[in-house]
Amino acid sequence: MQTPRLIVDASDLNDASSRASIEAAAHILREGGTVAFPTETVYGLGANALRADAVEKIFRAKQRPSWDPLIVHIADIEMLHHVAASVPRNAKRLMDAFWPGPLTLLLPRHPRIPEIVTACRPLVGVRMPQHPVAKELIRTAGVPIAAPSANLFGHTSPTSAQHVADDLDGRIDAILDTGSGETGTEHGLESTVVDAGQHPCVVYRPGAITLAQIRSVCKDAVEFIANERDQNAAPEALPSPGVGIRHYAPHARLVLVEPGPDQARRFAEQANGFPGETLGLMLPEEFSEIAAEKGTLIYRWGRWDDYEELAQRLFAGLRWLDAQGATVILCPLPEAEGIGVAIRDRLSKAARTE
After folding, report:
1. Which residue range is the domain that position 192 belongs to?
2. Any idea where the YrdC-like domain is (predicted)?
3. 177, 209, 237: which is the final residue of a domain?
4. pLDDT (mean) for 241-265
5. CA distance from start to end of the chain
6. Which among 209, 237, 265 is the end of a domain?
7. Which of 9, 26, 100, 193 could disulfide-link to 140, CB 3.0 to 4.6 Å?
């Protein structure tokens, strides 16, 4: 059975049709069902974070292992008091600076939050989304919403309602569809994850809120760098979700080209080096002179000097090339600066073979 799509106009939430869609989605969530909805990062798959039976449906739908914790989304600070047992001083400062927005904070779990949400860890990831549909859905539902990305576990994250349907059609109760095409989300990458209870603060997952921005509030903040022990550890022993595992991956084999002198030339040389494969290129505008073999699939990724655009279109491009039948995807890596750090993180995890 197909999952119903509830159409909503993000620019006019008071429209009668949009209002009806949000009310219907909120009812499903209150009753223990699952709803995919847009945020400013990627589409999330939501369930009532206060009900273990509802949250379990997320794990089943995504085929997500129980050791991987979820992020809880809230509409206001009052709702935070039902999710977090306490708020460290640095976390409060980061909330004041970046909420609502694409920042997840690891906070002490409130007893009302079932252990399934945090995979029995003492900390719970919490964020207040900025997207108008996400905010209104949570407010209308009246409960905090646990929501990872709305895709099959390990697969490329979804930035449109169609991406959600491609992975989860018939597996969830509803999709809130803003009809915004392949990049219906503003940032296109998952939120930055920070543990502000440690000193110094630790950035476990880079995102649209950069390390430099975090340091503008918590000057000694550090980026988590997995060591060999972390990379070989059992997933349930890792300090934060997404550390040291293959994730965000297309079905095609992903090959990355490091930055440096003559990156465009090296990219062009590799583009002609996959005989017998159906090659897909994540092609920046500045690399457009590349002559690839006939039959190469090309996704026009965006301007190479605009990391925000590259981030927004990253997952859409990987999914498009997959859908066109690419068996190998060749992608240049940006420099490790600003949001380029987050792009590199997602691509590096997607290209892992373990």
Report:
1. 5-237
2. 19-209
3. 237
4. 86
5. 34
6. 237
7. 26
